[in-house]
Automatic annotation (TrEMBL):
One of its GO terms (molecular function) is dimethylargininase activity. InterPro entries: DDAH-like. This is N(G),N(G)-dimethylarginine dimethylaminohydrolase 1-like isoform X3. The active site is at 186 (proton donor), 283 (nucleophile). One of its GO terms (biological process) is positive regulation of nitric oxide biosynthetic process. It holds the Pfam family DDAH_eukar. Keywords: Hydrolase. The lineage of its organism: Eukaryota, Metazoa, Chordata, Cephalochordata, Leptocardii. Belongs to the DDAH family.
Amino acid sequence: MDQSNTTMADSFPKFTRALVRQVPESIREHSEAVKTYKRDRYYRGYEFERIDIAKAREEHERYTQTLRDLGLEVTVLPADESTPDCPFVEDTCVVVGNRALVTRPWGGPRRKELDCVETCLKSLGLEVHRIHDEKAKLEGGDVVFTGKEFFVAASECTNKAGRKALANTFPEYPVHTIPVLWPEFHLKGVACCAGPGVMALGKNKDGKRAWEKILEKSEFTYEPVWVPDNTAVDCIHVNGTVIHCTEKQGPKSIKVFEEKLSCFNRVPCSIGELGKVDAALSCCSVLF
């Protein structure tokens, strides 16, 4: 990593807690992604492979333990069978410091997750805000926070009203718009903050487009890390350690992480079963 980026470390979030939510049986047949795959299976070019629930739960528990092993106090919410996508708790809120914004996911069924998350965040002592604009769409997977500013998608899942709500909740930070094109769901599948001043980007046209916008809009300096496996872009930085894909999931990307992120500790982790419904590592937790 370029040593000039070490100054970003002073403002980069330091985490002490994490929020996760367990995996319901209903995700296998009723996830929003399942509905999308069924609708678009010919467009996407392959048939949908259903989740092995037992394996998904085992992987999720290992993921949760990884967060604990890194020193975080983890709050585990129980699964709710009426909200199949509830393990993807990242989409339900954005937390910076002691302030949280409960989001407004684009899918109506996902909004049933929000009251439980709000209650939990309040019980943990956070200052919690809600979005009241019924036209707003905002999902946490579309929000990349670098410690200095937000990059937020213009996507199927997040719109201008959602970005405005985020800016109003965190007025001290600039909010920059990054277009994300369907069938990509979230910005973090294209660009993800891998550490202070370091941006992991897909080595494809979507990643290059996002990087051009970051360069255009930001006043700060970031070092790009070009990730060859699309599913490996999404990673999590926890107090000097990067949680990233396993070698099986991203054989080419592992070599890139070893070379470009050598100044950080690195921990491979898999949530491959939940990946069948388009989940990535950051989807399954909120850090604060």
